[in-house]
Sequence to fold (728 residues):
Amino acid sequence: MEHSSSIQVSCQQTRFDIKEDAAAKDIDIDGLNISIITNPSIGSPSESNASTSKASKSRKSAVIEILTQSELKLRCGHRYGLLGRNGTGKSTLLRAISEGLIPGMSENLKIAFLDQTVSPSSIDQTGAGGATVVQYVVESDEYRNKLVSLHGLISRALDDAADPLSIVRVMRQTRHERLLEEFNYVAKMARLRSGARGLQSRKELVAMEKKVAQSSVILSTEPSASTLQEDSKEAVDLMLRLQSELDAMPATDLEAKARMVLSGLGISEQQMNAPVQTLSGGWHMRVLLAAALVKVADVLLLDEPTNYLDLLGIIWLQNYIQSINPDTTVVIVSHDRSFMNSVCDETIILTEKSLKYFRGNLDEYEDDFRSRRLYLLRMKDAQDKQIEHIQKTIQSNVKLGKKTGDDNRLRQAKSRQKKLDDRMGMQVNAKGARFKLSRDMAGFHHSRREQIDVPEEEREMHLHFPPASELRFPGPLLSIENVSFQYPGNTEKTLLDIDLVVRLGDRVGIVGLNGCGKSTLLKLITGSSVPTKGSITKHPRLKMGYYTQHSVEVLQDLGRSDLSVTPLSLLLEKSGGSLSDQDCREILGMLGLAGHTASDVPIAKLSGGQLVRLAFALVLWERPHVMVLDEVTTHLDFYTVKALSNALAAYNGALIIVSHDRSFVRLVIEGHGLRDDADDNAEDQEDLTVVPSGRTVYRLSKGRLKILKDGMGQFEKAMEKKCTSISL
Fold:
């Protein structure tokens, strides 16, 4: 049975109508509730009414709550980083904003949205599949194109000497289209509002329906010269306003801007002039990103914009976002810590169906969270000791007072009890000043201070990788000597004289621009391809696990083709009977796919992060001595990337990693900022535990592999320098 889903939104609305306030670019919503409603589809049309009725009663809509009574505060010109685990609803929140589903948002807001959940094939579905890349990006700015089209239409009508009444037709059509836009707004308010305001909105809707009907009648009648002068004057005024708005927009040469953005994202001149449908999925997503960046927008929403970008493209995107109109509000979801720290000046955390805000980037938020938590823990500990001491004196005074009939002791005990009830709790207010009851809890209250609420640490996902199997005798795992590779039909070699030795415990990072041959090198290492020249020698007992950058897509295709495949059944099939049901469940459980999820949920229903974990299970079941990972962080949320980094840091085998994620490479390959528990986990491995003997970052450029002595930082500086030659 298929399911359809919709987003349901409700909130507290202002009593003022901000629809016509063109300057209202802030988003300030209280009491926001967002849910996803999933409805089973009705059966085949041939079902009888009775059976359909029975079936519909038996089917219940599934409601997934994303936000409950939360606050959405987006200030004009600020750049926000949105954090949250996979499945908490980050993409749903962005989609609700982009589609104007939230009541109280200004209807005049121009919103550009890069949706990571959209299928790249959607470009073809829009009918733009035959357009070139540049044409698609230019035509995607609907608002600007609408202004240009209307300006040209009015200008041509005014200059049409052969048909002077054409301007009357144009103005009638323009007024009718504006009336339809207003009708859509009123219809939405009538649908979303309730109570007295809902009744008023429905009355306005009835009135608007009459106006639209009258406008349709006028539109269908032949124009007369009676309104020619009035319509001509209105047309001239409108054209002047349109011209003024177009002049205020940056980069009026839209095609030039589109080419600049596409070039910055790594799309060549040849690709720009090619049809969109000739590009692969990763390139499609870059085109969609370019389309979002080119649009004139008050709010720019980017959901995982760094996916499929190399480091040069990521740094260019950083610089571009920092240079855009200062009045543009930006909200970004990304797993790339370095990118988020560079771009965002505020952080929004989606957790426990609520939005929390912090003024500062991701690193600053984590530092502040840790220091505040430590401060509150110490305050609570000290206060708990004080409370314990006071309670003992109260009990002692009450006991002694009753025994001796001493009223003073009883009054003293009562006074101390009042102190416990009224004065224990937070000793400072939200601004850090000393707490004062009359100021900080003015008005009606229960005369008690707020309790010391120590924030719980975000429960990190813990991934545990099974240790590598025993080698029995030492030696290099992998030796690459003087290897070159050339694709058939190419005049130049992709790889030239590559030398590389990998031993147990080594950490090897390979960085470089897209298309430089990184994935080709990994295919040679894993045996998927054969070198044109040179030799690759492997340890006789070597077991190798390979995670390709297309692993998730392969699993998605498999899930769509066979809805019965579950993680457990797939792993059992992959192991060829060498693993029992319990063994497979153990491996899947280590990676966060336990119980019902492993055995009963089809892989077609798994999220991107869950598919990554399943792909790792297919890599790890043989307990490989070396893991080869190609862009493994692409489909993960920030928290899962942290968990993966710690698990890889504790892994006792060798790692060969290709990644554009600077923080990920620095932690896993270079060992910077390793957590203590990652080192502790390493000690828990079996007798093959090996302290990483070699940590090396290589850059692949012009077919050659070069050691970066300063690691990822050296490559980042080189890309920053190269970025200066790309115009913004």
Summary: Confidence is low (pLDDT under 50) at residues 15-20, 40-58, 676-691. The radius of gyration is 32 Å.
